[in-house]
Each structure stands twice: as structure tokens, then as C-alpha cells.
Design a protein that fits this description.
The protein is mainly beta and about 190 residues long. The chain is built from two helices and 15 strands. Helix content is about 10%, strand content about 40%.
């Protein structure tokens, strides 16, 4: 019995603390980028051409927040186009800050995607979920541009697909997933 609890303690101690964005890949592109998950433990700024690379980036924002009011989303959110109050969500930021390139790729999450804020208005309305060490620049230029596409994989709701043509200042979206089993409730 003591061995069982000792083994259980070791397993729990070795569990990852934050594995919300699990990974991603650029399937096809004009450029030489790769998928990069950014660590918010080290402060950085995003927007206003702070990266200017061919990489597809993602990072985790606030995790497991109980919504006291519904939030409108541009993609997903069921028939209402919203994630209803009483839902626990985790927030993530995905972006492509290329000088001039095109990406076709995906990002995987540890929980199903509930909705996506893909335009300036919905991103601004959900900035309260961005409480990280990140500094957000050029807020008025966030979102997707004409010709950019993003969708939730029909066969795997944990996977987000993007087809983005990047230019200054880039393409930025916020992705909401269901409650992460590996993060504490806030």
C-alpha cells in the first residue's frame, strides 16, 4: 500500500503543469517557418511587427475561467454564435506575424475548441481573458484579413486549422477551449 501511494505521488509530481497548447505544424507555406509555442513565464510583446518571421505562434492566456456573461465568437459557439455564461473556458492566442508569406497549418489543444474570436470587435470584447505577462500592441489591427481562413477540424475538435496570408502587422486570433483537465480552476 505504501508503495502504491509513493508511486502515485511520483506520477502526480511528474505531470505537466501547463500543456494547454499541445503543439502544431505548418503543413504548407511560402517561407521557412515552423510552429512555435511561446512561454508566457518570460514576458514578451506581440503585435506591431514584433516577430516578423515565417513561424506560426501560439501561447496560452487565462485558463479555466468561469464565464459570468456569454461571449460572442466569430467561429463556433453553436447556433447562437456565443459561448454561454456558466461555461468554463481556457483562452489561447494564435498568430502569424510574417513579413510576407502564406501558412497552411494547424494547432492542437488539450481540450475541444468551443469558439474563436477572429475579428477586432470580438477580440477586444474578450481581452479580459488575456491576463498573462504578455504586452499586446496594435490592438486595433488584430483579427483576420480578407482571404484568411480558420476552422475547427470536424473530425478532431481539439485541432484548429489556419490558412493565412501574412503581412504587416500579421494575423491574430483568440481560441477558446473547454475546461482544461490539466489547469486549476480560476
Amino acid at each position: 500500500m505504501i508503495r502504491f501511494f509513493a508511486a502515485l505521488s511520483l506520477c502526480l509530481a511528474a505531470a505537466p503543469v501547463s500543456a494547454f497548447v499541445l503543439g502544431g505544424e505548418i503543413v504548407q507555406q511560402t517561407g521557412s517557418g515552423q510552429f512555435v509555442k511561446l512561454d508566457t513565464d518570460t514576458p514578451f510583446a506581440v503585435g506591431a511587427d514584433t516577430f516578423n518571421t515565417d513561424h506560426l505562434y501560439a501561447f496560452d492566456e487565462d485558463q479555466n475561467i468561469l464565464l459570468i456573461e456569454p461571449i460572442r465568437v466569430d467561429i463556433g459557439g453553436g447556433d447562437l454564435g456565443a459561448i454561454v455564461s456558466g461555461t468554463i473556458v481556457a483562452s489561447h492566442y494564435v498568430f502569424f506575424d510574417s513579413i510576407n508569406g502564406t501558412h497552411y497549418g494547424y494547432v492542437d489543444f488539450d481540450a475541444p475548441i468551443l469558439g474563436i474570436a477572429a475579428f477586432q470587435e470580438s477580440m477586444a470584447a474578450t481581452d479580459f481573458l488575456a491576463n498573462t505577462s504578455v504586452t499586446y500592441l496594435s490592438l486595433e489591427l488584430r483579427g483576420l484579413e480578407r482571404g484568411d481562413h480558420v476552422w475547427i477540424d470536424e473530425a478532431d475538435p481539439h485541432r484548429l486549422w489556419v490558412y493565412w496570408a501574412g503581412s504587416s502587422p500579421g494575423d491574430y486570433i483568440r481560441v477558446f477551449t473547454a475546461q482544461s483537465s490539466s489547469a486549476p480552476l480560476m
